[in-house]
Design a protein that fits this description.
The complex is a heterodimer.
Chain A (H helix, E strand, L loop, with lengths): L5 E3 L3 E5 L3 H14 L4 E4 L3 E5 L7 H13 L12 E6 L8 H8 L6 H7 L2 E6 L6 E5 L13 E4 L3 E4 L3 E4 L4 E3 L3 E5 L19 E6 L2 H12 L1
Parallel strand pairs in A: 5-13
Antiparallel strand pairs in A: 1-2, 2-4, 3-4, 5-12, 6-7, 6-13, 7-10, 8-11, 9-10, 9-12
Chain B lengths: L7 E6 L5 E3 L19 H10 L8 E5 L3 E5 L3 E7 L3 E4 L2 E4 L4 E3 L4 E4 L7 E6 L2 E2 L29 E5 L21 E8 L8 H9 L2 E8 L2 E5 L14 E2 L4 E3 L7 E3 L6 E2 L3 E5 L15 E6 L2 H16 L9
Parallel strand pairs in B: 13-21
Antiparallel strand pairs in B: 1-4, 1-12, 2-3, 3-10, 4-9, 5-8, 5-10, 6-7, 6-9, 11-12, 13-20, 14-15, 14-21, 15-18, 16-19, 17-18, 17-20
The chains are: A alpha+beta, B mainly beta.
Chain lengths: 221, 320
């Protein structure tokens, strides 16, 4: 990419207008440069934080430009694709009706439709381990709920059209919810604590309510 | 009442929000883990210095109101930050001073009328799990500190003896930060600063801003003026940091603190410079805030001078 769009604060830089492949590739390059204190992918940007005691703004900008110009050639080592078990029981996916209406499909087709989409992790944000997925297909926007829920259960899967949000833990939320995963997306004792990372491909695999409850029980014991 | 030689500290009265905080979580923002840690890392470092600890060691952060503890073992303590004095049993003693407490002694840290957070450092280590290079309480992730939560009355904090380094008995008086009800914060333009109308861009550094009551460790909603965006495109989510000022469509700017989320979708109109971010957590509701513009190179120079100054007294200090 030429005509690099770079923003400078006094200790962070923002590379803007990137597609998801560019972000993943540049995040890997940035890691290898060993000068950044934080490397934070956004939906179409990459932020790089540094220590202004060790690096002045001009040098930081030049190092960041090397990422943009791609003078460092790296094969992106994409994290392995992951299949997440999800239960589409309507008790876990109370907003399937709303979602089906926006997609113009039958409610009973929501699980098949969702599993057929190709998703990748665009970024993490909002809550520790909360993953924003983007799907390849062009899907109409689905609005947030008029009244956000005070509590959305851990493992809930929300859908805003092309974006699919995965709740690692219980929290407030306004995303229409279509199902619940039997997967732990954030575990502070694990290395790394977040199970998903930007660039990773994600698939969904339907499980029954009984399988879901068995998995939950297994996780607790 | 058990007055044995338990290696513990008991929380008698936790006050508004008291939690275990030390160094922030670093290098974890891509996993959406907020910085967390002490909102005022300078005051934390000064307290830790008095008990011979590393500048980012875990201590107890208190918010606005009275808090009271009981030492269940003999140790040294120090209090810094907003509080101007403390009481050991019924005796008033100065902050920024190392004090010996004995098993059974009470330690009370009163509310102050300027500044928000005070820090109580102990010569013993607070024995909670070290997580990702810290152990600070992360409220949104419910980990760190004591079970990832604020302390409650009756909590008993496990302690263990620590290797004590060189100790200063007092903070030199000229080095003690004094908080008033007016704050000057310097900023660089944010990535979407250009989205503001010309008059709103001017207002950023000419208005008398004040801190609204809507504030916590996540950030502060600013009062004193409504900003206008000339451009109202949908912004895709991207990185924000402590000190980022966002402008939601309503026009009331919001200044992010150490517990702020790692990403946001509102225009980032300004970024408080690294040298000044340690002040954010000492701003009280109603305090005046003046914003002063600096370019990135000036801001870096200010930061280097500040670090050179403080490293003479606290060699391992880090301000993020």
């Amino acid at each position: 990419m030429s005509g690099a769009d770079i923003y400078h604060a006094d200790d962070w830089i923002l590379l803007r207008g990137l597609d998801s492949d560019e972000i993943a590739r540049r995040a890997v390059t940035a890691k290898l440069q060993n000068v950044w204190q934080e490397i934070v992918p956004g939906i179409d940007s990459l932020a790089l934080k540094y220590d202004p005691y060790a690096l002045n703004a001009k040098d930081a900008g030049e190092i960041a430009l090397r990422i943009i110009d791609g003078t460092t050639h790296i094969e992106t080592i994409a994290p392995p694709p992951i299949a997440l078990p999800i239960c589409y029981d309507t008790a876990f996916g109370p907003d399937q009706t709303v979602v089906a209406r926006h997609l113009d499909i039958a409610v009973s087709d929501v699980p098949q439709w969702h599993m057929a989409q190709e998703y990748h992790v665009a970024m993490l944000g909002f809550l520790p381990g909360f993953a924003y997925l983007r799907c390849a297909a062009n899907i109409p926007d689905i609005p947030r709920l008029n009244i956000p829920r005070a509590q959305v259960a851990a493992g809930s899967v929300g859908l805003l059209g092309r974006q699919c949000g995965l709740y690692p833990m219980q929290g407030p939320g306004g995303w229409p919810i279509i199902g619940r995963m039997a997967a732990r997306l954030f575990d502070i004792a694990a290395q790394p604590p977040a199970a998903l990372s930007p660039g990773q491909r994600v698939m969904f695999r339907a499980i029954s309510r009984i399988e879901f409850e068995a998995a939950e029980f297994g996780a607790r014991t | 009442m058990g007055r044995g030689r338990n290696m513990t500290l008991t929380v008698i009265s936790a006050g508004l929000q008291t939690s275990i905080q030390g160094a922030p979580y670093r290098g974890m923002r891509a996993s959406a883990i907020p910085a967390s840690g002490a909102v005022d890392p300078l005051s934390l470092a000064l307290a830790n210095r008095l008990v011979g600890k590393a500048s980012g060691a875990l201590a107890i952060e208190m918010t606005m109101t009275d808090a009271k503890f009981r030492a269940d073992t003999d140790m040294w303590i120090a209090v810094t930050g907003a509080a101007r004095q403390l009481r050991i049993n019924d005796t008033s003693v100065p902050t920024h001073t190392r004090h010996k407490v004995h098993s059974g002694d009470s330690i009370a840290v009163p509310a102050s009328n300027a500044g928000v957070r005070s820090y109580l450092s102990l010569s013993h280590d607070i024995d909670v799990p070290q997580i990702l290079g810290s152990g600070s309480t992360c409220f949104s992730g419910r980990f760190g500190g004591l079970d990832g939560r604020a302390l409650k009355n009756g909590d008993i904090l496990p302690l263990k003896t620590a290797a004590i380094e060189e100790v200063q008995t007092i903070t030199p008086p000229e080095l003690r930060p004094i908080f008033s009800n007016a704050f000057l914060l310097r900023y660089t333009m944010g990535p979407e600063h250009g989205w503001l109308t010309h008059s709103s861009a001017d207002m950023l550094h000419t208005a008398r801003w004040s801190a609204s009551p809507r504030m916590d460790r996540m950030g502060i909603a600013l009062g004193g003026g409504m900003l206008e965006l000339a451009k109202n495109d949908n912004l895709t989510s991207g990185a924000v940091f402590p000190g980022t000022i966002q402008c939601p469509p309503g026009g009331q700017p919001f200044l992010l603190g150490v517990d702020g989320q790692t990403s946001g979708g509102y225009p980032r109109i300004a970024q408080i410079i690294r040298a000044d971010r340690h002040l954010i957590g000492q701003i009280r509701p109603g305090d005046n805030i003046t914003l002063v513009h600096k370019d990135a190179a000036q801001a870096q120079q200010i930061y280097r001078q500040k670090m050179d100054f403080w490293r003479q007294y606290v060699p391992d200090i880090r301000l993020d």
